[in-house]
Amino acid sequence: EAAVTQSPRSKVAVTGGKVTLSCHQTNNHDYMYWYRQDTGHGLRLIHYSYVADSTEKGDIPDGYKASRPSQENFSLILELASLSQTAVYFCASRGQGGSGNTLYFGEGSRLIVV
Amino acid sequence: QEKVQQSPESLIVPEGAMVSLNCSFSDSASQSIWWYQQHPGKGPKALISIFSNGNKKEGRLTVYLNRASLHVSLHIKDSQPSDSAVYLCAVSNTGNYKYVFGAGTRLKVIA
Question: What is the average pLDDT across B60-79?
């Protein structure tokens, strides 16, 4: 099964500080995604990428940047963390061919901004 | 922008019951509809997907899609305590590169 690993799994950040969440996948998938999950809102798309060195804005990109330096790695960057960015963040990659369009998720990164 | 709504918000059933979860979406041109299962502290995991009108059965799961009414439902037969989780409905756009999720239904199956 596709493997997506996220780091850190948990982080406490101070308001105004910089936070980088990292994601690594080992399954040669082209598409990678960053979602945030808040109670009552489900998963909302922040940024996604379909090729290395290129990223696309999702539905809620404000306050976030993304970086895709290689096919395997996709980072989410909060330059100036704010209280409203406290959430659980999930990275996912999308399979093709035999796995269809299944999204494979990591275990999540819990971010608390104080 | 696609909107996905799920009902009910939560559900408690006894072991062995049939569970029915609902999902409504706004764009009739949506490609595929997916159901994901999420256990506490874990990432969502794909369960079943459907593209064409009608139904699809996999093991204890059956999904029904009605594009005319923009509605899809997931039915879990003979529910087990291990089925206790949040169930997320996701709809993909044309090209299947963007997925919009509903807020989820929290299911608890009591032994």
Answer: 96
